[in-house]
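agent: user wants the structure for UPF0316 protein JW984_03580 from Candidatus Zymogenus saltonus. delegating to structure tool.
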Amino acid sequence: MFGDTTFLGTVMVPILICVARIADVTLGTIRIIYVSKGMKILASILGFFEILIWLFAIGQIMGNLTNLVNYFAYAVGFSVGVFVGIAIEEKLSLGILMLRIITRKDAAELADFLKSAGFGVTTVDANGIYGPVKVIFTIIQRKELLNITEIIKKFNPNAVYSVEDVRYVSRDPFSSNHLLKKDFLGLFRFFRKGK
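agent: tool returned. relaying tokens verbatim.
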């Protein structure tokens, strides 16, 4: 069955091209995220394997330029790879976020709860379109965003909050955070040197 060159050319090669593209685009998506987080070594390692796999896939395309199924497999692999890469990145939840919470309601209870949970909290009096507001700033690990937004909704359901990616924090704001646990990728923190 596998000795048949027609079967290999029309079925197996397109499948291999598609799988290779899924793998290399997934790695590429994650690599770009690592680059944006300043994780140079990890991004470089992923880049090596990404290009190695890509060379295999493009080599198969170039070996048979007349087979349109190969082109289709290449395109399908690319789009599925983007989806898989983003899904994996969402599961990894890498990075640090700055959360800005704006509320017209008294924010003391929410701020006290966040402080008791080990989060650094800064509150500022401000003026919004409808009058005085409180603005709460806190820095969190990205994987805690869902938990924190649930806490915000519990204490101040009408609060407006925004989230920003933070590339660098001058010191570890999570050392006393009771809601967070160490993760495997924390082992690679020493790779984040430099801007």
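agent: one observation worth passing along. Residues 178-195 have pLDDT under 50 and may be disordered.
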